[in-house]
């Protein structure tokens, strides 16, 4: 099997910050010879309902306590993804028996939780313990804050992109220390993906360039 990650999700449906952190995770894992399958990302209400039915009205074992209509799964808000392993953890020359090898998943969790990546891990939950699950913890361990603030997913999703506006000559993307321009003068109406807004600056991604823009020129 080729040594590469297997991404089985639509990454555009992940929150831009999570998507960026996923890139960091994949990079850090590959450096250590760890390859991942990204099995689950965003889930629609229907997909969440189908999962909820598993072990209840359909066969299989129960894997979630979140009904689609509750919007209480982080997956329904685009702030979580699930992984499986695609590398030979136990050194027996095979990969397929290690898909959910606990030792391997713990290695990934250590990388994911490190400062370099900064994700939170479902394996740290008490109930249910969800070791393949990684998420953005900005809004806590559940989507209740998101539900309260945005009501429905689409209102939340609107905050993921912003447009450059009100500039005379366009807006730069800067590096972290604001000492270097990474992308020059993006004109008004340019759409950028917004990871978060800090003190006067927004962390953004535009065509693969990740950096900082003045928040007051983003609408
Ligand atoms: Zn999950």
TrEMBL record:
InterPro entries (alphabetical): Peptidase_M15C, Zn_M74/Hedgehog-like
Gene Ontology MF: a single term: peptidase activity
Domain Peptidase M15C per the UniProt entry, residue ranges: 68-134
A Pfam family reported for this protein in Swiss-Prot or TrEMBL: Peptidase_M15_4
Protein name as annotated: M15 family peptidase
